[in-house]
Write a structure and sequence with these properties.
Radius of gyration: 15 Å
Structural class: alpha/beta
Number of strands: 5
Strand order of the largest sheet: 2-1-3-4-5
Distance between the termini: 24 Å
Oligomer: single chain
Mean pLDDT: 78
Length: 137
């Protein structure tokens, strides 16, 4: 589960989306001002950063490159929330350091009864479960 796997999560998204994502979770810190990203990373040392691509798309490449070139941030996982699949943009982001993608289209396809964090949990646990099954075999 995301709460046990990632003890500190930094969410970079518009202020509107914060209420539904951070309502029940004390380990999620929400940032809605782009200039506060790096001071917040330094202050809270998160294990996972979730970027809303629609909110920060023009600066996202520069921010990810800065995170990946600094050794202080080397253990931070990066997740990108996007509204739809864009192969060209996704391949660039993956190449520069994004670990996971979460697409709004996939979220709509999953049952409405599940909350958003259970969806994040499923998507983030898939690579770990795949790795574990390869080790077991």
């Amino acid at each position: 589960m995301i709460r046990t796997r990632f003890k500190k999560v930094l969410l970079v998204a518009p202020e509107i989306s914060s209420h539904q994502l951070t309502a029940d979770y004390k380990n999620v810190r929400h940032i809605h001002i782009i200039n506060n990203i790096f001071p917040s990373i330094y202050e809270s040392t998160p294990n996972l950063i979730v970027f809303d691509y629609n909110f920060i798309s023009k600066d996202l490449e520069k921010i990810i490159r800065r995170i990946r070139t600094n050794n202080f941030y080397s253990k931070i996982k990066i997740c990108c929330y996007k509204s739809k699949v864009e192969p060209k943009a996704d391949s660039l982001l993956k190449a520069i350091g994004v670990d996971f993608f979460v697409y709004e289209e996939e979220l709509r396809a999953i049952q409405k009864s599940k909350n958003i964090f259970s969806v994040f949990t499923e998507m983030l646990e898939r690579p770990v479960l795949g790795t574990l099954s390869n080790v077991h075999n």
